[in-house]
């Protein structure tokens, strides 16, 4: 019996550690996204504020969970579980808000990225050429900039990128969404396991 209680405490402490780390990672990601928040209106700002609030809440609840587990504070454990349900629901609402408005948010972010970064920097970073593709330069009879050429380590040569930066940025946001959904579901599984 005593061993079972010890195992449960150790497992709960480990899961609380995951919650604290997850909260800090979510906070860091939200702060990193603030770079592009200037000039965007309510929808993106709302998602960002919810992300910051939820991430700090998850971190704080994880710390409170440590205290409750180590001090055998039963009421604290009940409060801890109730708060985790609330914050998991807030996290789910943030994801739902983002998913239903994903294209609008992504289009605004892409416009903001173009406004704050030089196209040449974006081409080099995302391995793309022009906003819509290399045809953009060909139609305007402009020289294709060096930022459209990238080293390909597999082919061991320089390759001219043909895809537009709009496409590459949308792919980046899709990958980011997939990672966010994965982290969210891992978080939900951890929370369900704690209960």
TrEMBL record:
Pfam families: Tetraspanin
InterPro entries membership: Tetraspanin/Peripherin (IPR018499), Tetraspanin_EC2_sf (IPR008952)
GO CC annotations on file: membrane
Keyword terms, alphabetized: Membrane, Transmembrane, Transmembrane helix
SUPFAM superfamilies linked: Tetraspanin
Topology versus the membrane: Multi-pass membrane protein
Compartment(s) of residence: Membrane
Transmembrane annotation, as ranges: 13-31, 43-66, 78-100
Superkingdom: Eukaryota
Protein name: Protein late bloomer-like isoform X2
Organism, scientific name: Drosophila lebanonensis (Fruit fly)
